[in-house]
Write a structure and sequence with these properties.
Elements (H helix, E strand, L loop, with lengths): L3 E11 L10 E10 L2 E7 L8 E4 L4 E2 L3 E3 L11 H8 L9 H9 L3 H17 L2 E7 L6 H12 L4 E7 L8 H9 L1 H6 L5 E6 L6 H13 L3 E6 L7 H7 L4 E4 L5 H9 L4 E2 L4 E2 L4 E4 L1 H7 L6 H6 L4 E3 L13 H11 L4 H8 L6
Parallel strand pairs: 1-4, 1-5, 6-7, 7-8, 8-9, 9-10, 10-11, 11-14, 14-15
Antiparallel strand pairs: 1-2, 2-3, 12-13
Helix pairs in contact: 3-4, 5-7, 12-13
Pathway: Amino-acid degradation
GO cellular component, one term: cytoplasm
Organism: Arthrobacter crystallopoietes BAB-32
C-alpha cells in the first residue's frame, strides 16, 4: 500500500461537487492522498490519520487546470501576423499555412523539443491535463508524424487534418484525403477528431463528411465553430453529439437553444446522465484576434456547460496561461470565480 499524506487546514477546497457545499466549496477542509489519488476529502475535524501530515496554512486548494484545446506541435513563429493584426488588419485562417511550411521543414527532434518545452510551460502554470491537436502537417505523412509526436507528450491527442485546405489543392479532394488515407495514418495515435467549420476553411457539407468518417473510425468528436461569424459549426456539433464546440464567439438564439437542449439528460448536481456538447470559450484567443468574447454568461444561464481553454497556438493565442483565461472570464465574461474555475477544470474534462 502506498504511504498516505494528510493535507489539513485548507481554507477553501474547491471540489467541483455541488453536493459538498455551496459552489462545491468546503471550508476548513482536508484531503488524504494515497499514491497518485485523493482517497478522502472532507471537513478537517473529521480527517482520518495518515502517515504524513502537511499544513496548508489556510490556503485554497483547487484541481489542476484541464486545458482541453491547444495546438502545440509546430515550428516557426507568426510575429508578423500578430503585428499586422494589432495594426488593425482582419484575422483570416490563411496564417495557418505559414506554420504548416515551418512545421513540415522541422525535424522530429526539433518538433519534440519544442512540444516538450511548451508542455513544461503549461505544467508550470498549473495545467495538469493537456490536450493538443495535429493540423500543421496537412498531408498524410506530416499529419501522422505530428500525431505520433503529440502522443508522446500530451494526455489526449486530437486529429485536425481538417484545419485548412492547403494552397493549390482541391477542397473536396482534400476532404476525401482527410476522411481516408490521412485518417487511417493518424488513427493509432489519436482519441479525438476536430474540424474547422468556418469561412475560409471547411464548409458545412465538407465538415459533415469529416465528422461522419471520424465517428465511424471510433473517434470522439469536436468542432471549431462560430469563431469568425455566425455559421453552421454549432448546429453540426449538436447534430453529431460532439463532445465540444470551440470558440463560439458568434451565436444566435437558435445556437444557444440547440446547445442547451443537449444538456437535458444531465444532472449537474450529481454528475449523472448523459453530458451534452460543451461550449469551449477561448478568451486569450478572443483578445488576441480582437473578436467579441464568447458569450459565456449567456450560455451558462441557458443551462450549457462551458469550458475555458488556452487555445495555445503560434498565430492567435500564443499562451498556455490558464490563469489568464480564468481571470479574463471573471473580469470580462461575467463568470463568478467558482464558475470560471469549474469551466477550467471539471468542464474541460467532460
Amino acid at each position: 500500500m502506498s504511504p498516505s499524506a494528510l493535507v489539513t487546514n485548507i481554507g477553501e477546497l474547491m471540489t467541483q461537487d455541488p453536493a459538498r457545499g455551496s459552489d462545491g466549496v468546503l471550508r476548513d477542509a482536508a484531503i488524504v492522498i494515497e499514491g497518485e489519488r485523493i482517497s478522502w476529502l472532507g471537513p478537517a475535524a473529521e480527517a482520518p490519520a495518515a502517515d504524513e501530515q502537511f499544513d496548508a496554512e489556510g490556503r485554497a486548494l483547487l484541481p489542476g487546470w484541464v486545458d482541453s484545446h491547444t495546438h502545440l506541435v509546430f515550428a516557426g513563429d507568426r510575429t508578423a501576423e500578430f503585428e499586422a493584426r494589432m495594426a488593425g488588419q482582419d484575422y483570416a485562417a490563411g496564417g495557418i499555412a505559414v506554420t504548416m511550411e515551418a512545421t513540415r521543414g522541422a525535424s522530429d527532434y526539433d518538433l519534440t523539443r519544442l512540444l516538450l518545452g511548451r508542455a513544461a510551460e503549461a505544467v508550470a502554470g498549473g495545467t495538469t491535463y493537456l490536450e493538443t491537436k495535429t493540423g500543421y502537417g496537412l498531408d498524410v505523412e506530416q499529419e501522422a508524424r505530428s500525431a505520433r509526436i503529440a502522443a508522446t507528450v500530451a494526455d489526449q491527442v486530437t486529429y485536425l487534418g481538417a484545419h485548412l485546405v492547403p494552397a493549390g489543392v482541391d477542397a473536396d479532394e482534400y476532404t476525401d484525403l482527410v476522411c481516408g488515407d490521412m485518417l487511417a495514418a493518424v488513427r493509432p495515435y489519436v482519441q479525438w477528431a476536430d474540424v474547422f467549420c468556418e469561412r475560409g476553411a471547411f464548409t458545412a457539407e465538407q465538415s459533415r463528411r469529416v465528422l461522419a468518417a471520424c465517428r465511424d473510425a471510433g473517434l470522439g468528436l469536436r468542432v471549431h465553430g462560430n469563431q469568425l461569424g455566425e455559421g453552421p459549426g454549432v448546429q453540426l456539433a449538436v447534430e453529431f453529439s460532439a463532445a465540444s464546440v470551440d470558440h463560439v464567439n458568434y451565436l444566435n438564439d437558435d445556437d444557444v437553444a440547440a446547445l442547451a437542449g443537449t444538456w437535458s439528460g444531465w444532472d449537474a448536481r450529481s454528475g449523472t446522465g448523459e453530458p451534452g456538447t460543451v461550449a469551449t470559450c477561448l478568451p486569450a484567443c478572443d483578445l488576441s484576434t480582437r473578436q467579441p468574447l464568447a458569450p459565456g454568461r449567456t450560455l451558462l444561464d441557458a443551462g450549457v456547460e462551458i469550458a475555458l481553454a488556452s487555445n495555445c497556438n503560434p498565430g492567435t493565442s500564443y499562451t498556455s496561461a490558464m490563469n489568464y483565461c480564468v481571470t479574463t472570464a471573471v473580469l470580462q465574461m461575467g463568470l463568478s470565480v467558482h464558475e470560471a474555475v469549474r469551466a477550467a477544470t471539471y468542464a474541460g474534462a467532460l
